[in-house]
Here is the input.
Amino acid sequence: RELLKFTQQPDIISFAGGLPAPELFPKDEAREAACRVITDHGEKALQYGPTEGLLPLRRWLSERMVRYGIQAEADNVFITSGSQQALDLIGKVLINPGDQILVEEPTYLGALQAWNAYQAEYAGVPIDDHGLRTDLLEDALRVGPKFMYILPNFQNPGGTTLSLDRRLELVRLANKYGIPIVEDDPYGALRFEGEHLPPLVALDADFQASAGLNGRGFMEGNVIYLGTFSKTLAPGLRLGWVVAPVEVIDRLVMAKQGTDLQTSTFDQMLAWEMLKTGFLDDHIKRIREVYGERRNVMIAAMEKYFPAECSWTKPQGGLFLWARTPAWIDTEALLAEAVAAKVAFVPGFAFYTDPQKGRNTMRLNFSNAQPEQIEVGIRRLGLLLQAKVTEHRVVTTAPELVPA
Ligand code: PMP
Here is the structure.
């Protein structure tokens, strides 16, 4: 945290944050919508509103999610102050001190921060290039975690996507052991290549229906799904949503009342006013193009400047990729040198529940910097890594160090 403060300096190229590209924010649409909201609906927009969220927005979301195979009613949709708040509310409702949560390794740091406050313990199951290693899941499920926390699309930090086979296996095992899944999907709409894969919440509904388990329609499933407008509209709006069975929503709503009563009425109305113009599809298309190009620039630069001993994921969407250096490099120590060389990243250990893991990994964000900056920043990082590899080669091959 101390080092990352320096990344705010203007001459540092930072791949550390998770910020969307600000030049893509829909400022014109927001300005016009804000004017309409205040002029036409000012008394409502500046008033308290229901804890569940604005009904037209919940309806819009339920209709929108059908395209992803999620057949939720407005009653199954609950608006939160960002999906970060949903993570916190889930912790508040579900976690008792000492409860074990099954997480991917590595996983989203913000979820761990939210649940640490409720004294959660963690069981980590590793991911590989196809997402969670479902072949390693069953032993962990037998121990009886409270729930599993899964990021199926363009994982933060890994950039990986859970394959369809593994999604099906995950849902099967979740039902076999009766362990709920919290599916966090902030990046699913930001796919720049490949086919969209069905969300776990939809696969779970199919599973329940085919097993004859679901007597009361879709929303009796085993999955709590989290979405957000942070990466498609703007994170400053602080608008996220939960899709879950009504019984779960009721508990979360009660928890939210004690937290902040409701998500900002004005922000919800602003979003709704923007969304109903139908601009979002074109807008998301533009974001995908820009981020896809930035990913390409970052990967091309890594191929050019990073030593052959390094490897990285090739995300098909989202904001991040994950790089591995040789095992003897500690990326936490490397960050200090990188900041001195005016480039920053997040050392991978931060995304593990055990800080001894992931010591030779790093998360790189490609959405926020301009392509030219990405090239320069990756060059700086690459030169640093090259120097380390060369130095290591000299040391380990020096004649006096070669065993007799
Ligand atoms: N989950 C994941 C995986 C994230 O990456 C983020 C933000 N970076 C969040 C949740 C929280 O997002 P927000 O509160 O802005 O919706």
User: Anything to note?
Assistant: The chain has a mean pLDDT of 94. The chain is about 45% helix and 15% strand.
